[in-house]
Write a structure and sequence with these properties.
Blueprint: H1 2-37, H2 41-68, H3 74-89, H4 95-124, H5 128-156, H6 166-181, H7 200-232, H8 235-264, H9 266-286, H10 292-304, H11 307-317, H12 322-350, H13 353-357, H14 359-371
Length: 399
């Protein structure tokens, strides 16, 4: 069973990477839309918004559908849909058509995540480490989007965008293989689905914490490069290095989070990660000089360690609505960060970039408060053995 689980998780993780390329590809195409089509910044931002906002909002809807019907076929189909929209965006003859195909890509990405998260949960059999690898795949795909788009654009500008369909084809094949490798050919639903009681109060508090995390991540992703350039006086190289530290640290943190949760319990790890994030973001904002890179790395760890744990906690708080939980934690709460980024930018224009980043220190503290009092949900195959008092350790049978 362990070998079969590892194969399924590996296939799902690689497929996740192929699909999430398209979450980063739209933003990576913006400079080329501006240069080749003379789009204004507002028009270019509209392209990104068409993909990200629609994708985030409709993910819970797809989650609700997967709660009612098993739809393993949705994985390869959504991978192809997500890739086709981005691939066509560079060859559309009008702005409206460009928005349309990018929105279709966003719908494909939205359709993928709830069902993929459910499939990964089934394949993981209670292993938080396995879910960490699944989440890592998406983070890697997002990070690979800019160099992939740059390579395609170098081959022929926006006219070469149809080449961007290649990851979608590969991802669809991987997803199809993952479905075939699952018990019953991928049609068997989670045996625990429909068992237990949905704890909406705990789920909503967890979602609030995830939203706080999302605002911090999107805010720093957008402005940390510019900010580090100001703080270190190192120019473009210094800013790019800071962004790389943020993303690379995330890859390490995602896997580490699963391993730590298997040992110490999910809520214990998540709570400590939010505390670390408060200290780390304060260091990024307040500490001058090269040491800022250390705090960027610590911030990355604090933000990414709980990433996969948010998903499994949400699923276990809503055992009767696993798809809905996945759609919210992977989609809807993430859109909050995207909506908040312009607010941070406006505050920076009115004051200074450093002043605009100060509120980000308080958000993980708010998230930590929302986590107080939550109990480790009694997930299938794991038994909670610790009380739910704020800050106390939770251990599970699997840990």
């Amino acid at each position: 069973m362990s070998t079969k689980r590892n194969r399924a998780i590996t296939l799902l993780s690689l497929g996740h990477a192929c699909v999430d390329v398209y979450q980063g590809a739209t933003a990576a195409l913006v400079p080329y839309f501006v240069a080749e089509r003379a789009y204004s910044y507002a028009a270019a931002s509209g392209v990104v918004l068409a993909a990200s906002l629609l994708s985030s909002v409709v993910q819970p809807l797809f989650g609700a559908l997967t709660d009612r019907w098993a739809m393993p076929w949705l994985l390869p189909l959504s991978a192809l849909t997500g890739g086709a929209g981005v691939a066509l965006s560079g060859v559309m003859g009008s702005y409206v058509l460009t928005l349309t195909v990018v929105a279709v890509s966003g719908i494909g990405v939205a359709a993928y995540h709830p069902e993929a998260a459910r499939a990964a949960r089934d394949a993981a059999h209670g292993s938080h480490t396995a879910m960490g690898w699944f989440s890592l795949g998406g983070n890697v795909g997002f990070a690979l989007a800019p160099p992939l788009v740059a390579a395609v654009a170098a081959a022929g500008g926006l006219g070469a965008s149809p080449l961007l369909v290649v990851p979608a084809v590969v991802g669809a094949a991987l997803c199809a293989a993952a479905v075939r490798s699952a018990p019953g050919g991928g049609v068997a639903a989670d045996k625990a689905a429909g068992v237990g009681t949905d704890d909406w109060r705990s789920f909503l508090r967890l979602s609030g914490a995830v939203a706080c995390r999302s605002i911090v991540f999107v805010g720093l992703s957008t402005f940390v490069s510019l900010y580090v350039r100001q703080r270190t006086g190192g120019g473009n190289v210094a800013g790019t290095a800071a962004l790389c530290v943020l993303y690379v640290g995330g890859a390490v943190g995602t896997v580490a989070g699963g391993r730590l949760a298997d040992r110490y319990g999910r809520l214990t790890v998540v709570r400590h990660a939010y505390v670390l994030t408060v200290v780390a973001v304060a260091g990024v904002v307040l500490v001058p000089g090269p040491s800022v890179y250390l705090f960027v790395a610590l911030t990355s760890a604090g933000l990414y360690v709980p990433f996969s744990l948010h998903i499994t906690l949400g699923q276990d708080y809503l055992p009767r609505r696993v798809g809905t939980a996945s759609g919210v934690t992977l989609g809807l709460t993430v859109s909050v960060g995207g909506l908040a980024a312009p607010v941070v930018g406006a505050l920076a224009d009115a004051t200074s970039l450093r002043t605009a980043l100060v509120p980000l220190v308080a958000l993980p503290a708010l998230g930590r408060l929302l986590l107080c009092g939550l109990r480790e949900p009694e997930a299938p195959g794991r038994v909670s053995t610790a009380p739910g008092a704020c800050g106390r350790r939770h251990r599970t049978a699997s840990g």
